[in-house]
Design goal:
mainly alpha; elongated
């Protein structure tokens, strides 16, 4: 089964479940809304953490490059 069929079936299944939830139960709908909101919050926190880690790695790389250049100029003077 190729990806087109797989994703198509997932979409249709999600649409059916969504329609049933919307039509039959506001409690389930509210629960799903809170769950999706929580997932979005987790995604935002993960993106913030990844950005902090990226900035730390860039700082570390810049410091290493500066030390390498300093060591290179000291080696050239000797």
């Amino acid at each position: 089964m190729n990806n087109w069929w797989k994703y198509g079936l997932v979409f249709v299944g999600g649409a059916v479940v969504g329609a049933l939830v919307y039509k039959n139960s506001k409690e389930i709908r509210n629960l799903c809304t809170k769950a999706v909101g929580g997932i979005m919050d987790l995604k935002d926190k993960a993106m913030e953490t990844a950005e902090i880690m990226k900035e730390g790695a860039e700082d570390l790389l810049a410091e290493a490059e500066a030390q390498r250049k300093a060591a290179g100029t000291e080696g050239a003077k000797a």
